[in-house]
Write a structure and sequence with these properties.
478 residues, alpha/beta, Aminopeptidase, Rossmann fold, 3 domains, seven-stranded mixed sheet, 33% helix
């Protein structure tokens, strides 16, 4: 039997009314008198319009069988009452409903008043994790450590895994500082699988601003890494217990936040404080690098001609560019550099993997050993995403190609730091010639490879997650 909760709608009023007037059902209520229909209907309407009230229908295998009523009595603190229809009592419906409720509001305190003669309800609340603190008074506290952070990171089709990966690395550092971390997942199975593989809790919630605020109530920190959410709407939540932090890569929206983070050197050209951020963490000192890469040891033999090359454009196929790139590498790069082995990485969102006919190219579809592939590379061709920063951290001399407008500033900033070769945009009619020339420079010019590698190493030291986590922990118990 599957028990779940859904918000009450006005059309549920008649069913709830039938439960309310069932003989004996209200014997332990504060008001034992059954309501009249119109009074009941008015009560439902009033509570549905009240931001301090939450009404949930309890369902078992999609059948309505009970009702949960929450009343806000403080920030992240609610009084709860519960009613289960007579025919569903004794089937653990109420207990499961309370347990699900605690998962929906994982950082909130719940209180219940239970008359001492109501033996069944006393057992119910104790079994659902409540403890008795006084006569008739029961409370359930959230599982808390030093602090708590709720994270919503965008991920999936058309977005890639970069947002989620950097949030997971930051979450690991927060966890090391005794901060409880909870991820919000809009029922994306890949997000749930990846996050739980790192050992973090996940809660399913709609990708809507009010739902995110509801889940985060009681937290010390709410961290958003998502371009499409309305940050202003989240910041204006009337029940904030949390400081609001965002990763902001574009610098083109209002940011009424406590902290804005951008680890690119292009962030020096943005004034995030003018967009509303009270505190800003900008520049490569705050660039987050995946821990499996930081845990590897590698050395660059920059004096010898490269023999291993990594080619990647991210999680997707770049609106069809991946196949064109694969053909170009096969027909133009491989014949020119016969001793160069190429690892072509195809992202997890790509369903049609390019067909390769030469042995000099190895195709890796959504590889789990990406860190090892980066560490083993002598040179690389990459789009401007998270992988580009990881290549630079690893001191890999890299050619950067721009797939989209939002990558341009990042590439320009890294080019200004003289740690990449930029070949411009894939939309340029000359992109193939630009890439060929860049490959020739990297393959033949030892001094250039050393210069790019050394500059990249100085720029990104891999301690960005630690620095951000340390600042965020200053928000705990603010």
């Amino acid at each position: 039997m599957i028990v779940d909760l859904r918000p009450v709608a006005l059309e549920d009023a008649r069913q709830i009314f039938k439960w309310q007037i069932h003989p004996g059902i209200r014997q332990f209520f504060r008001n034992t008198n059954p309501p009249e229909w119109q009074d009941h209907l008015d009560w439902i309407k009033k509570n549905l319009a009240n931001q301090n009230k939450y009404l949930f229908l309890i369902r078992a295998d999609s059948f309505a069988c009970g009702f949960l009523h929450l009343t806000r009595i403080g920030l992240a603190e609610f009084e709860v009452s519960i009613l289960v229809s007579a025919e569903w009592q004794g089937k653990s419906i109420a207990k499961n409903g309370l347990l699900i409720l605690r998962k929906k509001f994982p950082l909130s305190i719940f209180r219940a008043e239970v008359k001492k003669e109501n033996i069944a309800s006393t057992k119910l609340f104790l079994s659902a994790g409540f403890e008795q603190i006084a006569d008739n008074q029961y409370v359930a506290f959230p599982n808390r450590v030093r602090g708590s952070c709720v994270i919503r990171a965008n991920s999936g089709k058309g977005v890639g895994l970069g947002h989620l990966r950097r949030c997971l690395e930051l979450a690991l550092k927060l966890q090391q500082k005794d901060c409880y971390v909870l991820f919000i997942d809009p029922q994306d199975h890949d997000i749930h699988r990846i996050v739980t593989s790192f050992g973090f809790d996940v809660i399913n919630s709609p990708d809507q601003e009010h739902a995110i605020c509801q889940t985060a109530e009681g937290a010390d920190i709410l961290l958003i890494d998502h371009y499409e959410l309305n940050i202003t709407a989240i910041a204006q939540c009337p029940y904030r217990t949390w400081k609001l932090a965002v990763f902001e890569d574009m610098g083109k929206r209002e940011l009424p936040v406590d902290m804005a983070i951008n680890g690119s050197p292009s962030a020096y050209n943005m004034d995030l404080s003018k967009l509303g951020a009270k505190e800003t963490l900008v520049g490569p000192d705050f660039q987050i690098i995946r821990s499996d890469l930081r845990n590897l040891s590698f050395s660059r033999e920059l004096d010898r001609r490269p023999t291993e090359c990594l080619v990647t454009i991210g999680a997707s196929d770049g609106n069809g560019f991946l196949n064109n790139l694969a053909i170009f590498v096969e027909q133009e790069i491989c014949p020119r550099w016969k001793n160069l082995h190429i690892n072509l990485v195809v992202g997890p969102e790509v369903s049609r993997v390019p067909v390769i006919r030469v042995r000099e190219i190895t195709v890796h579809h959504a590889p789990e050993n990406m860190a090892e592939l980066i560490a083993a590379s002598d040179i690389a061709l990459s789009a401007s995403g998270q992988t580009l920063t990881e290549l630079l951290y690893s001191a890999v001399p890299t050619i950067a190609i721009c797939l989209a407008e939002n990558q341009l500033e990042n590439i320009r900033a890294f080019e200004k730091e003289n740690c990449i070769i930029s070949v411009g945009s894939v939309k340029s009619k000359d992109w193939k010639e630009e890439v060929l020339q860049a490959f020739s420079r990297l393959m033949l010019d030892t001094a250039l490879r050393k210069e790019l590698s050394n500059n990249a190493t100085r720029l990104i030291d891999g301690r960005g997650a630690e620095r951000i986590a340390s600042v965020l922990m200053g928000y705990v118990n603010h």
